[in-house]
Write a structure and sequence with these properties.
Number of helices: 11
Number of strands: 8
Strand content: 15-25%
CATH class: Alpha Beta
Number of domains: 1
CATH architecture: Alpha-Beta Barrel
Distance between the termini: 37 Å
Largest sheet: 8 strands, parallel, barrel
Structural class: alpha/beta
Bound molecules: SN-glycerol-3-phosphate
Oligomer: single chain
Radius of gyration: 19 Å
Helix content: 40-55%
Length: 217
């Protein structure tokens, strides 16, 4: 499963990129607002940090204007994935852009039928929001299973990008279902490394090593 980080904080992205485990970045208008920086400038910087797909979202709601904004975004770098909302105009834009060889991430997906439409529109990525579904008392991960089944039934190449990931259990469940990608905030990715028994075990090994009086090399 590919790991994308869901942030526009370039310090966090640099730090996680150093682990060698980061396959891409997703941003959205809320994350750009949180970063407090110029949109095009921050996205350009991110594209220079990671080689994998960097999602940058259009803010227009009609197809013509979405295409104009996408034209600006895709010029930033070859690894831009233009993010469009799952609307009629968004999917029209998706079809046109992927037809021209631009990666497209279709966002704000909440049903398997929406995911089916995105795949038919040639989406590179579909972003179902599991956390926001959990928030309203439904089972977000159920949606991932349904999309996996449908995409496998028809051999759709669209990658399932699990979004709105809030905790490590979401990552685990997504991996068990066979999602292609997950995007999570930096803090959730860092949580994946941790276990108190790892810390305790390491402490004990190092204490015993100290007692041997040896050093390596
Ligand atoms: O990038 C979209 C998505 O991951 C948003 O997550 O936590 O705002 O629902 P959240």
């Amino acid at each position: 499963m590919k790991f994308f980080v869901d942030t526009a904080d370039t310090a966090e992205i640099r730090d996680l990129a150093e682990t060698g485990l980061l396959d891409g970045v997703t941003t959205n208008p809320s994350l750009i607002h949180k970063a407090g920086r110029n949109f095009l400038e921050v996205v350009r910087e991110i594209c220079g940090i990671v080689a994998g797909p960097v999602s940058a979202e259009v803010v227009a709601t009609d197809h013509k204007e979405m295409m104009r904004e996408a034209g600006i975004l895709r010029k930033i770098a070859d690894n831009i994935a233009v993010k469009v909302p799952l609307t009629v105009d968004g999917l029209k834009t998706c079809k046109a852009l992927t037809g021209e060889g631009t990666m497209v991430n279709v966002t704000l997906c909440f049903t398997a039928n929406q995911a089916l439409l995105a795949a038919k529109a040639g989406a590179t990525f579909i972003s179902p929001f599991v956390g926001r579904l959990d928030d309203i008392g439904t089972e977000g991960m159920q949606l991932i299973s349904e999309i996996r089944l449908i995409y496998d039934n028809y051999d759709f190449a669209t990658e399932i990008l699990v979004a709105s990931v809030r905790h490590p259990i979401h990552v685990l469940e997504a991996a068990k279902i066979g999602a292609d990608v997950m995007t999570a905030p930096p803090a959730v990715i860092r949580q994946l490394f941790n276990h108190p028994l790892t810390d305790r075990g390491l402490e004990a090994f190092l204490a015993d090593w100290q007692k041997t009086g040896q050093s390596i090399g």
